[in-house]
Design brief:
This protein is α/β, with parallel strands linked by helices. The chain folds into two domains: 84 residues, no CATH class; 152 residues, Vaccinia Virus protein VP39 (Rossmann fold, 3-Layer(aba) Sandwich), CATH 3.40.50. The chain is 51% helix and 13% strand. It has ten helices and eight strands. It has an eight-stranded mixed sheet with strand order 3-2-1-4-5-7-6-8, with helices on one face. Helix 9 links the parallel strand 2 and strand 3. Helix 2 runs antiparallel to helix 3. Bound molecules: S-adenosylmethionine (SAM). The site of S-adenosylmethionine has 23 residues, from helix 8 and strand 2. Keywords: Membrane, Methyltransferase, S-adenosyl-L-methionine, Transferase, Transmembrane, Transmembrane helix. This is Class I SAM-dependent methyltransferase.
């Protein structure tokens, strides 16, 4: 069960609230004769959140789940006590979130975007290597794909994305601009065998499995680049620290024997 909870943390967070409920009910029942109703309700909400957060911790969930678990009962009570709130904004917010982040709970990879400086560096890298095929695994809004396609003559730039919102937006932008191609495809099912440069900006979770897949499928002389997340226990061929505000780190992994990039980045 622990592995299921760690794979799908939202299940663990829900379970934590359910387990906390009878404990809170028992404690508040004991206190009900001694404490006024309003402070008792406030205490019950606090206790519910605190116990749920502790359970999330025992499940080994990431720290933001502890915060969510703690705030959840307070937020629920808040919306109930504010009174007469229409239900539709919550429905729309839910749909919007599902549209953009529907794959996040399973894959643990949210949407955040490569910045302009990194896009430019990647385009230069692809050009300098003379790459013909570039893939962005989890291409988000498709900015990297369009930039590479626009700046590097003759390159086939492909992005694969599963979240419906980002896929639709990026697909449309690519079609309208004529730069790059976006497919609705799971990055773990993408054929990497033709790619000269594969780029990923994901999270620590998928890196080991993704690197194994890259190593098995990518041809010698090709390059796997990960933005910010190194592959555990694998020494990168190079690490580039860019001169942007967030000091972006690109981890470069050469596949087999091959050329190495020559750009003048500050290497660490
Ligand atoms: C951090 S964003 C990076 C977006 C884009 N590569 C960029 O750098 O601007 C990661 C993207 O990967 C997508 N993603 C997560 N898991 C995926 C999967 N299994 N297959 C395809 N896309 C996935 C997410 O929906 C998200 O849009």
């Amino acid at each position: 069960m622990l592995s299921l909870v760690r794979k799908t943390p939202i299940l663990g967070a829900l379970m934590a609230q359910v387990v906390a409920m009878p404990l809170v009910a028992a404690v508040t029942a004991l206190l009900s004769g001694m404490v006024d109703q309003t402070p008792l309700i406030a205490f019950a909400l606090f206790l519910q959140g605190a116990i749920a957060a502790v359970i999330c911790r025992l499940f080994g969930l990431a720290s933001w789940w502890l915060l969510i678990a703690f705030l959840f009962p307070l937020a629920m009570a808040g919306t109930m006590f504010v009174g007469n709130l229409p239900a539709w904004p919550f429905g729309i917010a839910f749909l919007l979130l599902a549209f953009v982040f529907s794959n996040t709970t399973r894959g643990r990879v949210p949407l955040y975007l490569t910045n302009a400086a990194t896009e430019q560096t990647l385009a230069d890298l692809v050009r300098e290597r003379g790459a013909r095929h570039f893939i962005d695994l989890g291409s988000g809004l498709g900015g990297v794909v369009r930039k590479v396609a626009e700046r590097v003559e003759g390159v086939e730039a492909l992005g694969v994305e599963t979240a419906p919102g980002p896929f639709l937006v990026s697909w449309l932008k690519s079609r309208l601009s004529g730069h790059g191609e976006i497919r609705r495809q799971n990055l773990f099912l993408t054929d990497l065998s033709k790619a000269d440069v594969v780029y990923a900006f994901l999270s620590p979770t998928p890196m080991p499995a993704l690197y194994e897949r890259a190593r098995a499928m990518m041809k010698p002389g090709s390059l796997f680049v990960s933005n910010s997340f190194a592959v555990p226990d694998v020494t990168p061929s190079e690490i580039w620290e860019l001169d942007d505000r967030r000091k972006t780190r690109l981890y470069l992994y050469e596949m087999g024997e091959g050329s190495s990039p020559t750009s003048a980045k500050s290497e660490v």
